[in-house]
């Protein structure tokens, strides 16, 4: 074994630390990854029959307002000028999202200007007001009123979380804005785009350094491989980006996650839905949304004109055998997480990071931003540098 630093997990958090440690500090970094590929959930590959890039773990849209993250990611890839827009099918009619003047006017069969629409929504919101919103349902009603909530949020959320919206934290939808203009950009960030030659090329460039060794299909908890937990903890600094409860053998109980199932299909048509993402708001449609990957890259003129790839997305609770995607974050989960954070303090040479290691929903730019700060404030000082 010849490495200065062990990184468990090759997602954006792990790769950012590995890249900085190798390029900035000249360290030898061993990365181990359980899956057969690099990149964690951001991994993508070209579908075999069509050559269309498919995001294997669900559509990934890059966006950020953090200038240092934007500068950093541009070292490894250029971005297209793709701007994400989402539409929703409700009762067989298609509406623009996030809820904006177009959605409101279509829904109420009206031609309101911004002031009238705002007054209408405020009136509807006041009808359902309960004071300080304590859960997702109360929060949504306080923002958009009951009719819009019941159409676009209630059943979609029930499908996505299989949890009563009154038991979900209000924050789940706080990132969904309501706009009194016809602007239907999904994200508000200063920078947005998709990597010109795909996610995997970007991720591979981050690891492209002779000082970084990435070993795939290697599980930290598999005692038969040399970089296992028992052999490494205490003897080498470790960045651990796997699930925090798994690290401690679930001693404080399991943290709840949701996972997704994806049904991919190649269709013999050039365009199936005319846009990249269509949400399905009604409960009787079992999937939450359909992705059509060709629309993420309209600039790729080599994509076939007579075939397309779609992916239906289904959501359900994760078992230990599934990939954990979204932290459920109930009160019990938050209590258990605090107990794990206490245990973490006993692991002096292990840094817990990323989505799984901190039990937090992190967008890519947040995972990268968190890794850049952790590198500066925690990793570099371990080697007598930086901070
Ligand atoms: P991960 O990417 O999960 O990487 C962790 C890695 O650790 C994995 O590769 C895993 O296999 C490995 N690992 C775990 N346990 C072990 C072990 N015991 N031994 C070895 N390796 C192990 N972000 C956006 O910005 N825009 C989006 O549109 C977007 N869409 C998303 C859609 C979905 C469905 C999901 C789930 C996430 C989405 N994200 C999006 C978030 C994005 O995927 C994360 O920000 C990013 O993956 C975080 O990187 P990470 O390194 O923390 O975690
Ligand atoms: N949401 C909804 N209807 C929609 C889209 C989103 O009710 O058509 C709610 C739902 O609770 C979801 C949350 O908003 O979990 C966040 O949605 P977003 O699409 O931002 O999250 P993603 O699933 O892409 O991470």
From TrEMBL:
<dbReference type="InterPro" id="IPR015899">
    <property type="entry name" value="UDP-GalPyranose_mutase_C"/>
</dbReference>
<dbReference type="Pfam" id="PF03275">
    <property type="entry name" value="GLF"/>
</dbReference>
<protein>
    <recommendedName>
        <fullName>UDP-galactopyranose mutase</fullName>
        <ecNumber>5.4.99.9</ecNumber>
    </recommendedName>
</protein>
<feature type="domain" description="UDP-galactopyranose mutase C-terminal">
    <location>
        <begin position="151"/>
        <end position="361"/>
    </location>
</feature>
<dbReference type="GO" id="GO:0071555">
    <property type="term" value="P:cell wall organization"/>
</dbReference>
<comment type="pathway">
    <text>Cell wall biogenesis; cell wall polysaccharide biosynthesis.</text>
</comment>
<keyword id="KW-0961">Cell wall biogenesis/degradation</keyword>
<comment type="similarity">
    <text>Belongs to the UDP-galactopyranose/dTDP-fucopyranose mutase family.</text>
</comment>
<dbReference type="GO" id="GO:0008767">
    <property type="term" value="F:UDP-galactopyranose mutase activity"/>
</dbReference>
<dbReference type="GO" id="GO:0005829">
    <property type="term" value="C:cytosol"/>
</dbReference>
<comment type="subunit">
    <text>Homotetramer.</text>
</comment>
<keyword id="KW-0413">Isomerase</keyword>
<keyword id="KW-0285">Flavoprotein</keyword>
<dbReference type="GO" id="GO:0050660">
    <property type="term" value="F:flavin adenine dinucleotide binding"/>
</dbReference>
<keyword id="KW-0274">FAD</keyword>
<dbReference type="Pfam" id="PF13450">
    <property type="entry name" value="NAD_binding_8"/>
</dbReference>
<dbReference type="InterPro" id="IPR004379">
    <property type="entry name" value="UDP-GALP_mutase"/>
</dbReference>
<comment type="function">
    <text>Catalyzes the interconversion through a 2-keto intermediate of uridine diphosphogalactopyranose (UDP-GalP) into uridine diphosphogalactofuranose (UDP-GalF) which is a key building block for cell wall construction in Mycobacterium tuberculosis.</text>
</comment>
């Amino acid at each position: 074994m010849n490495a200065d630093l062990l990184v468990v997990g090759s997602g954006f958090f792990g790769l950012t630390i590995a890249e900085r440690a190798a390029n900035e500090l000249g360290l030898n970094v061993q990365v181990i990854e359980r899956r057969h590929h690099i990149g964690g959930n951001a991994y993508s590959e070209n579908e075999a029959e069509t050559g269309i890039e498919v995001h294997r773990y669900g559509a990934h849209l890059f966006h950020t307002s953090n200038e240092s993250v934007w500068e950093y990611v541009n070292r490894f890839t250029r971005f297209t000028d793709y701007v994400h827009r989402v539409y929703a099918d409700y009762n067989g009619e298609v509406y623009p999202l996030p809820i904006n003047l177009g959605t409101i006017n279509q829904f109420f069969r009206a031609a309101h200007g911004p002031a009238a629409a705002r007054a209408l929504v405020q009136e509807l919101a006041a009808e359902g007001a309960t004071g300080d919103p304590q859960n997702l349902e109360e929060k949504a009603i306080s923002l958009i009123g009951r009719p819009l909530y019941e159409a676009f949020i209630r059943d979609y959320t029930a499908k996505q979380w299989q949890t009563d919206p009154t038991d979900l934290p209000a924050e789940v939808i706080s990132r969904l804005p309501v706009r009194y203009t016809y602007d239907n950009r999904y994200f508000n960030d200063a920078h947005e785009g998709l990597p010109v030659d795909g996610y995997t090329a970007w991720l591979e460039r981050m690891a492209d350094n002779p000082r970084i060794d990435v070993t795939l299909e290697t599980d930290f908890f598999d005692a038969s491989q040399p970089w296992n937990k028992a052999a490494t903890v205490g003897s080498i600094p470790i960045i651990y980006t796997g699930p925090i409860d798994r690290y401690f053998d679930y001693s404080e109980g399991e943290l709840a996650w949701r996972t997704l199932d994806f049904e991919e299909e190649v269709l013999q048509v050039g365009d199936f839905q005319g846009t990249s993402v269509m949400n399905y708001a009604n409960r009787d449609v079992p999937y939450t949304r359909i992705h059509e990957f060709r629309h993420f890259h309209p600039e790729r003129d080599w994509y076939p004109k007579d075939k397309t790839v779609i992916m239906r997305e289904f959501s359900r609770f994760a078992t230990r055998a599934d990939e954990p995607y979204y932290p459920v974050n109930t009160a019990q989960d938050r209590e258990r997480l605090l107990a794990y954070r206490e245990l973490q303090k006993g692991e002096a040479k292990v840094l817990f990071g990323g989505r799984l290691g901190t039990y937090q929903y992190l967008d890519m730019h947040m995972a990268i931003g968190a890794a850049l700060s952790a590198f500066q404030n925690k990793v570099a000082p371990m080697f007598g540098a930086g901070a």
